[in-house]
Design brief:
The chain is of the alpha+beta class. The protein has four helices and ten strands; from the N terminus they run αββαββββαββββα.
């Protein structure tokens, strides 16, 4: 009888990690998915600026608010709060390094690794990682698929032209589309 209780206890210990609470975020910063542009402006106050980016005809998401001075640890970034075309509800936030695209590659590489480490610390191991090199162009992508949000971290670097960027995107999961599939 005693060994049955030990077996059940061992089984419960093995299942405990599987029952651990899944980490998630229902937005970014003060933004919650579905929040209106006006509500986000009110939440950020003087930090929020109207975006000056003119959307192209094929843009799926349109920048509506810019936060020009976002600090992530020691990294200086800019955030764009974005809405789907024809909507006033924020569904995506894109962050980019404020460093010039022509800054030395090691700055972008270090920023990518720092952001990746912070995201792993906050959300756990990524769902997927991919790295490709083609014609002197490197692209590294790290993805976290959470219940209500996907987070994508990208580092793109052209060794030929010494240009590159690091971007971080938080995007609301389209639950209606998932239910249709």
């Amino acid at each position: 009888m005693n060994h049955i209780f030990r077996s059940i206890g061992a089984l419960l210990l093995m299942l405990l990690p599987a029952c651990a609470e899944t980490k998630d975020t229902d937005g970014w910063g003060k933004v919650k998915w579905g929040m209106t542009v006006e509500a986000a402006k009110a939440a950020y106050g003087a930090e929020a600026e109207d975006s000056t980016i003119v959307p192209g005809p094929n843009f799926i998401f349109i920048d509506r608010i810019t936060l020009p001075n976002v600090k992530v640890g020691d990294l200086e970034m800019k955030a764009s709060l974005q809405v789907p075309k024809g909507s006033d509800q924020i569904k995506q936030v894109s962050l980019s390094l404020k460093a010039d695209m022509q800054a030395p590659s090691f700055m972008r590489s270090g920023a990518f690794e720092r952001l990746k480490a912070l995201l792993i610390e906050k959300y756990g191991a990524p769902t997927n990682e991919d790295g490709t090199t083609e014609r002197e162009h490197l692209v590294k992508t790290v993805l976290w698929s959470l219940p209500t949000t996907t987070i994508t971290l990208i580092w793109s670097e052209s060794s030929r032209y010494q240009l590159g960027y690091v971007s971080l995107r938080y995007k609301a999961v389209d639950k209606k589309a998932l239910d249709t599939l």
